[in-house]
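MOLECULE: protein
FOLLOWS: sequence and fold
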Amino acid sequence: MPGATPSNPVSFPAPVVRCDNALKGYPRSYGCVFPQSKNVIQYSLSGYVKEVAKHIKDAQASGLPGAYGGRTVLQRLYDDRQIRRNRRTSCPDSLPRPAGKSCDEYAFASTYQGGALLGRFSRRMVNETQNTDAGRDLNKFYTVNRILNKDPFQVAIVR
């Protein structure tokens, strides 16, 4: 074009990418993620796991870590022995469970902020099916987002 001035070249740094085959339970699974991106799992107060979502919201309001937008995070834990210890601390088998209910713990037993490690936790009896579904969603979140040992994430509670 007549009279056009060429622009100055601009360069941007390449994003950091982490590629691995270290996903717990999937040793032959390879994948890549942008480790600087924030990982957030979302539960809805009006969705199919609403009792679990309400529990998490209340637990976060009490000061437990991992609330979306807050300064704290949860970190995934791989050690099965420690996960069982977290779960036994927060939801021991000796705790009575009403019919159709199961014990839900927050922070999640599968995190370094779980009951035995952090020393503080919340537990609530919630609908058993909802609790199972919420746990399945958490495991899917870990897998799809390649959340590895000690990787940080937060939990968002939405309407």
